[in-house]
Amino acid sequence: MTLLDLCSYLGLGAAGAATLNLLLGMLISLRYSPVRCWPYRRVNVFALHQWTAYLAVALTLAHPVVLLFQSTRQFTVVDLLWPVHSPLQPTLNTVGALAAYLVVLIIGSSLLRLQIGRPVWRRLHYAAFPMMVLLFVHSILTDPELKDGHPDLLDGGKVFLEIACLVSVAAVIARVWLHGRGLRTAKSAAEIS
C-alpha cells in the first residue's frame, strides 16, 4: 500500500463516518427511539452520533497529513492549510479544506454547546449540510492518483462515495418531508400531548 492509497482510504473513511454521522444526527432530530422502533433495544444513538463525529474529525485531519510524507509530489503544510496554490488540483483541494474547516467548526461548537447556548449551537450545526456538499464534491471529483485530474467515477472508492452521496441526499429529502412530524407513532404522540 502506498501513501496515496493510505490517503485515499483515510478520505473514504472520513466520508463514510461523516455520512453515518449525518444520518444519526437526522434520526436524533426526528426523535427516533430505538426502543419503540427497530431494533427494539436500548441503543444510545446520541453516543453513536458523538463517536462517529470524533471518528470523522480524526480521519478528516489525518487524510491530508499523509501527503506531507509523499516523495513524488511535494505538499507543504501551507498547501494543506490553505491549498489555493497547492501543486495539484488546487480548486478541489480548497473545497476539501473548506469541508474540513466546517467539520472542525461543527465539532468545536458541539464541545462548547453549554457555553455558547443552544440557539447558536443549532445554527452552527446546520453547517453540516454545506459541509457534506463540499465533502462529496471534493471526494468524488478528486483524482486519487494525483495524475491528470480525471478520476475514474466507476472505481470502487468513487462508487462508495456516490452511494453515500445518494443516501445523504435521500435522507435530507426524507428529513424535510417529515419536518414537524418526526418518527413518533400516533399513539406515542398522543401520550406526550
Describe this structure in words.
There is one protein chain. This protein has helices at 3-29, 45-65, 77-81, 90-111, 113-116, 118-125, 128-141, 156-177, 186-192. The protein is mainly α and 193 residues long. It has one domain (3-192). Helix 1 (3-29) runs antiparallel to helix 7 (128-141) and helix 7 packs antiparallel against helix 8. The termini are far apart.
Mean pLDDT: 91
Number of domains: 1
Q: What's the total helix number?
A: 9
Main sheet properties: none
Record field, number of beta strands: 0
Q: What is the beta-strand fraction?
A: under 5%
How many angstroms does the end-to-end distance come to? 58 Å
SSE class = mainly alpha
> What does the overall shape look like?
globular
Low-confidence runs of at least 5 consecutive residues? none
Q: H/E order of the elements?
A: HHHHHHHHH
Q: Whole-number radius of gyration?
A: 19 Å
Q: How much helix is in the residues?
A: 55-70%
List the helices and strands and how they pair.
Blueprint: H1 3-29, H2 45-65, H3 77-81, H4 90-111, H5 113-116, H6 118-125, H7 128-141, H8 156-177, H9 186-192
